[in-house]
Amino acid sequence: MTARWLLPWVAGLACLVACLTATTAAAWNLAKHEPESGLLFGMWYDRLSGVTPSDIEDKLQSHHISMWQSDINITDTLQDASPFLRDVEKINTDAAIFLTVYPFEGIDAVSDGAIADLAKLLGRLTAQKLTAASGASATRRVFLRYASEMNGNWFKYGMQPTKFVEHYRRVVTAVRAAAPEVAHIWGPNSPNGYPWIGGKYAPEPGSPDFQLLDTNHNGKLDIDDDPFTPYYPGDEYVDWVGISAYHYGKQFPWVDNVVANTTELEGLMTGTGSPMVNPYNFYRMFSGDGVGGQPKSLTSGGKPFMLTETAAAYHLNFLSDGTPPFAGPGNVAVKQSWWQQYLNPDFLARYPKFKAVCSFEFKKAEELTMRDFSLTLDPAVAAAFVQDAEKMKTIHWAQPVTREASVLPDVLVASKSSAPRHSGTAERGWVAAVALTLAPMLLSAVC
Ligand SMILES: *[C@@H]1O[C@H](CO)[C@@H](O)[C@H](O)[C@H]1NC(C)=O
Ligand SMILES: *[C@@H]1O[C@H](CO)[C@@H](O)[C@H](O)[C@H]1NC(C)=O
Predict the structure, then answer these.
(1) In testing the pocket of ligand 2, which one of 246, 248, 250, 266 has its CB within 8 Å of the most ligand atoms?
(2) Which of 38, 88, 128, 338 could disulfide-link to 394, CB 3.0 to 4.6 Å?
(3) 354-361 and 369-372 strand pairing
């Protein structure tokens, strides 16, 4: 038996060495699914309302969204994700799957079996092969945002840094064992209003979590405390970072239809601008040089940044009596004032690690008004968005593909039970064999 299988490896290795010496170190610091440059444009669509990705793409003149987000809950069982996955499979593009998972009943309610089911589901998804018209094939890219907005006090798992960090690490470790290609997004809320005094799940004064969150040790939780660092699980558990950032109007109680100030988004990312904003510079702390955490930075920075959910709200009517608020400059102008902040080459040049946006495609009753956040419900907004997006040559739109058989039949079985899974030795053997064959080709392709 000859060692013929070694040949591509030798070639690949030689090529890798050449590559390493020829390119800058930065090119090798890309995180999972991070484009070297340019922007992924995703959407979080309102799945439970019955709308589908294909409905939305029809309204965007058939531009293919780079990634689709939806959410499921995890408790002692994992909620069935297949309605979402089926929706994305139906459009036959190579769009990434962006799964947000909420431990809605709190961290203690999440079972090991449910975490194992999540890991297994993601393993299946990331193994699905997609083939483009050119014949090139790749596996499905998957992002996981687990327990997002953990610095807010509106989720049962919120504002519990000790438990959160331990739990998040456990989930990442379990998922990596079964699905090493998943990109893990750590996604706190923007600091607008932190620490949201008086919320339902705020920590008891004097408790260990309270002391951790009182980062300047002045005995109270206030706007001068670091809204991020106490919740950071550590660089080795995080592939991407991101925040939720919205334009709601002028000021609390957020009912005014007004355009966003031109630096409003930048203010949320960097802790500058409006007095509502906390002075911590999220972008610099996690995606820049890592400086600025209190009491000390837990990151060396350089993580790709994503607006994990973002939109400008257009207030349609008051919930109390149905009357419309002042129309202001109109839906198009309000929304455009927001997307033009990130669909903006100067802005992106200032923030080179800003690599993805996920637009919140919902109409939703919140606080005092019915809010239209979407880019496609109003055809005039959709037309204006497409026009501006087409000017941005750096958006990585998804491409049409054909795919292997659906991953869903197995997924459905997996999600129905939280019993411990079999060890999957056979699967791992198969994956190893494929990896052994493909890795050298990939190496050569990269070079
Ligand atoms: C998750 O649970 C919450 C609370 O029960 C519910 O409001 C929400 O709709 C659930 N999410 C999904 C995707 O079903
Ligand atoms: C924009 O900035 C001006 C001046 O700081 C302020 O008066 C106005 O309320 C801001 N508008 C919004 C929408 O935040």
Answers:
(1) 250
(2) 38
(3) unpaired
